[in-house]
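Quick question, first post here. What does this chain look like in 3D?
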Amino acid sequence: MPSYAQETGVIKVGTLAKIRRLYFRDKQSIKEICRQTGMSRNTVRSWLRDPEMVEPKYPARVVVSKLDAYSETLSLWLKADSGRGKRERRTKAQMWQALCELGYAGSYGRVCAFARLWKIQEGLATAKGAFIPLKFRQGEAFQFDWSTEYTFIGGIRRRVELAHTKLCASRAFWLVAYPGQGHEMLFDAHARAFEAFGGVPQRGIYDNMKTAVDQVLAGKKRKINARFEAMTGHYLFEPEFCNVASGWEKGIVEKNVRDRRTSIWHRAKDRRWADWAELNAWLAE
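> Answer (accepted):
Ran it through. Tokens below.
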């Protein structure tokens, strides 16, 4: 078991002076000194043998980790990802899996701890804001958003507009890929999602996308696109729109975009799809 001195690295001169006073002046036994200071007998004896009041020093504690052999590789990966866009970056879980393939036998938590320390040392760590979570009743609302991804379709690397529809209460979601964000694709995404969910919530929450909002007015007032409003009337749900540049008001689907990019889309982006139907059938699975 390590002694107090070994745990602290360098013992304070005041503690050493106290031990010498207890022994030489107060004639206390080594056992009593150990009881009062909480130090081991071997440590107290070694200090008392020294004829001079010299502050004892110990070498810095070296912690051996299974990650040490892979730290340089992980640092290079983190540095490379710091220069990429968010959708191109790998998650810590993906890096951990890649290290395991190289022979790393340590834990996922050690990789996360290393990444956090690396970001602090590189000045890349930023404080995160705190937000009050919203609560929803079952069937009350859904949130909708688009994300831009890339994959190979028909032998060509294509830009994909991915429609995300997510129920606010249960967090169930549905993904559909399209070549654009036009009304036809927007309405089809809603139809597929409602069919998959088995019903239509009471309201839908959106940002101010051009296919839904013709003009942003004061406050929450909007001049809604006629075709979009006809779609909401057909499905009998009420549309709501976030304030400008306030993505956190539909944070559930915003988080879904991030999570699905790392949990699903990273497997789709490098595969080859014959057509859009094949890709959407895979997403549905």
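Residues 1-11 have pLDDT under 50 and may be disordered.
The longest helix spans residues 251-268.
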